[in-house]
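task queued by scheduler; priority normal; single chain, no ligands, no partner chains; default sampling; output format set to structure tokens
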Amino acid sequence: MLEGASAFEIFGVWSILLVAIGGLVYAFLLGRQVLREPTGTKEMEEVANAIRSGAKAYLNTQFRTILWLIVLLAIALFFSAHLAGEPLKISVGRALAFVMGATFSGTVGYVGMSMAVQGNVRVAAASRKSFSEALRIAYRTGTITGMLTDGLGLLGGTIIFLIYGIHAKDVLLGFGFGGTLLALFMRVGGGIYTKAADVGADLVGKVEQGVPEDDPRNAAVVADLVGDNVGDCAGMAADIFESYEVTIVSAMILGIGVMHYLGNPHDYRWIVFPLMVRAIGVLSSIIGTYAVRARSEQENAMDAIKRGYNISALTSIIGFFLLAKFYAHDLRLFWATLAGIILAVIINYLTDYFTGTRFAPVQEIARSTRTGSATTILTGLATGYESTVWAIFVIAFAILASVIIFAGEPALIFYGVALTGIGMLTLTGNNVSMDAFGPIADNANGIGEMVGLEPSARKILADLDAVGNTTKAITKGIAIGSAVIAAVCLFGSFTEETGIQAFTINVVKPQVFIGLLIGGAIPFLFSSLTIRAVARAASLIIEEVRRQFRIPGLMEGLVKPDYAKAVTICTRAAQRELVGLGLLAVLSPLIVGFALREEALGAFLAGIILTGQLLAVFMANAGGAWDNAKKTIEDGLYGGKGSEAHKASVVGDTVGDPLKDTSGPALNPMIKVVNLVSVIIAPIIVRLHSSHSSPKWPIYLFVAICIIIVAISVWYSKKEAHFLPEEER
């Protein structure tokens, strides 16, 4: 389908396909290496098996819960292309690409989590030998997820381009929507699960009973360790995968638009360049992996991880320059991708500044714990609000950079923003490796606590866990920033599909302004529902843990707690929210678009991108700052564990937990689901409203049905749930 392509371009595309497959093979080989490592004692294996069983049972239940919705949406996507006047090949391709995107996203989350729960006990066992061994196993286990993300994301986009060529635009939308929707489900479900367990375990265990974190007498401790995997590993992996996927989709769609704008349908460099950039990123991530090793037993793990990241970044930048210079013959493409890498570095720094223990914001929160929970919460809120302002400025400057780079050619500006997103997520392999490293180290530390490993091993695991908290915070910042860039790119695609330009969206028109207001409100409603879900489930966990602490002999260690009951509560709590929140994201643009037309839908997207970004960064950074303030006190500051300052910090941390690990990160895929649905339905809206002969009452009936479904979903999500009989709580 690459008619008119040069020999180099044909060779390049097939090489990209081989690189994608090579990334998957590398992930497989790393998996074999990890599984050959020793698993430690029988007691360690028992704890690890409990975590593994809970995590797999949760994801299996989740996939069964949403399978019917995936099937229905695949059918709907087929008809969306058909109603827009697309040929049968495109309609079928869009539906199949949606299923492929959903399958790839689910695979990244499931396989990555499965390897994480295999690697955690091996890291714990390696800590009894040396720090360098534990670091190597933890990071390479995380790299498996990173390579799956790289390989599958690049593989899907390249296959679709090879089959459909310049007609791939509408099929790519299905691929992006599938990955994004699965990420939304995994992010929401995993976030509710992990934070319900974490909040319940901390408030009863640390504050009320005064037992350490991951104490085996705490009934919620296994659920908490399971939650680290389904939330921070499976959920975040799927989240970053869909950002990786959507930026490829956006760049290719906008690249096809540039080809038509320039009047040369065979100028494939606008599509091939971003694919080649991604292929360079895969190779760079593999190179960087081998640099992540301790140079001495005293080296900080973060230094080794940063060394690998910097080597990958430098390799990528050199590759971008050579590609732009000698293939594209346009250095503007290099500057746009370089802007993305710079954006990633600045966001890393900002996230580290507002959430790291070495800097003023977290130290200020830690000081505020001396005067109680209220001042702790107020200081954390202030930190979160400030951080989101700086983040939005950085993203605004990144978009401005594209305006400057492509000055004189406005039609290329959105394409430049897409390249910024491509550059920002070039090192996705490294980013996902860093993120998965967090729950792996956390689980290993929890296993060490539960089985009572020797002090030297516990020290190594505690150090790795502390670094893991930082890497998780950094990848959350990258995920949120990339979500906004991807959403802006999709906004550009929307203006192409509707035939309107952003500057013609006139907010003075009442219906357009209404669209803007509704778009600005949706992230708040979405966040309210997810936070309420965590609070409701955490209440049930708190009651269950309190009940079990009253069992005679439990505190003395004579009786083991019933870990399975807490796991069941968290699983059921997460599942009941999935479909309702998914329907809110899918149906809200349908309501606005069909009721108020395409210009109002454009304003709706602008509102949701702005408030979604501000809310997501605020919640992620405030929560991260509260968490690290607690950790500084647990390290001995202001009286250490058990002090009044510590109790106040735990309260702040439990408030921040659902913000940073549930609601904030879940806004990333939600924003992109809304944008993708809008791009998909835009041609249908234009076609239906431009037909004066067609009756309008079916459109308004459809809108009324969507409103009723959303209202029922919101009501159900707010409804109180009781998962256990009263006498058992």
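post-processing summary
- Residues 7-328+422-494+524-597+658-728 form one domain.
- Confidence is low (pLDDT under 50) at residues 723-729.
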